[in-house]
Amino acid sequence: DISLLQDVSDILPFAMKFPDGTSSRAMKRGTLALSSDYLLPDVLIVPDFDCTLISVSKLLKQTGCIAIFTAHCVSYRTVSRGL
Question: How many CA atoms within 13 Å lie on the side-chain side of 40?
């Protein structure tokens, strides 16, 4: 949903393939506010996709957090530094 993003801009379109085998093109990018103090930049807009996906790998690299997956949820935690 493009309304969730800030600073939306056009990009050179490129193909994206979905799990069901269909494809579409990413046409724009923007910044997604994950919380009041963290913004995830370079989120792609794919008009034919009806949900919002984020790259967990990108999120973890940019925040320095870890992800904990269970059968019912996913949690993100800050990694403690030191002993």
Answer: 20
